[in-house]
Write a structure and sequence with these properties.
With about 220 residues, the protein is α+β, with helices and mostly antiparallel strands. The chain is built from seven helices and ten strands. β7 (about 165-170) and β8 form a beta hairpin. It starts with a helix and ends in a 7-residue tail after the last strand.
């Protein structure tokens, strides 16, 4: 049987701008449950359906459980799947003290025209206050690994082997400087030598080219 229920759920999630984890939090289920529904590996139980319609009263039963009148037909057919594109969402990246970047086997939707401009891009969640003048805590940043390195732009960087942060980066001949942009004066810029190895080595993951606030941001 075709997985029209999963397509309807994915279409609704994409239209709302939810990650799988975000929708799961609202419905009281795990990210893996949402992924399994969308992939057709399992179906929502009756209690899950009740949570769905209680959380989103604008939805009808057909929106989720109908093939011909479902959400996928209402949205994805009209857009031919080109209005939004699913891109990898790899988890959290700090805008304060660098934290370990946690991989998440998940995707999130972005506008198709932005994807076309940055086809190899991926998403990371920004946490912390060191960049709050330009990127608020909790926003989702789109990272382009193919952008050329230009001093004064905002980049996602990995400090050491696993830690990651987002900062304004100034490139010098033998060093890079990570500069915060915060209302909090406690955040200070820091310079790393390009010749250093080990814990202080810096790897540029890509430039921040776009960001957005997730649904229910600030609540």
């Amino acid at each position: 049987m075709e997985n029209f229920i999963g397509r309807n759920i994915q279409a609704f999630r994409a239209h709302k701008g939810f990650s799988q984890e975000g929708l799961g939090n609202i419905l009281g289920v795990s990210q893996t449950s949402i992924s399994a529904w969308e992939d057709g590996k399992s179906l929502p139980r009756k209690v899950n359906a009740s949570e769905f319609f209680e959380a989103f009263p604008e939805l009808s039963h057909d929106d989720i459980f109908s093939e011909e009148c479902g959400y996928a037909c209402k949205t994805l057919k009209r857009a031919r799947g080109l209005d939004v594109v699913q891109v990898p969402f790899y988890g959290a990246i700090a805008a304060g003290t660098p934290i370990e970047m946690i991989d998440v086997d998940e995707t999130m939707p972005i506008p198709g025209h932005i994807y076309n401009a940055y086809p190899d891009s991926f998403l990371l969640r920004v946490s912390g206050e060191s960049m709050n003048r330009c990127i608020p805590d909790g926003c989702i940043a789109l990272i382009d690994p193919d952008s050329e390195w230009v001093s004064g732009k905002i980049y996602a960087v990995r400090v050491g082997e696993t830690d990651a942060t987002v900062k304004i980066v100034n490139f010098y001949k033998s060093s890079v400087e990570l500069v915060p942009n915060s209302y909090d004066p406690r955040f200070k810029k820091k310079k790393y030598s390009a010749a250093e190895d080990g814990n202080d080595s810096v790897h540029i993951l890509g430039r921040v080219v776009w960001f957005f606030a997730p649904f229910n941001f600030g609540k």
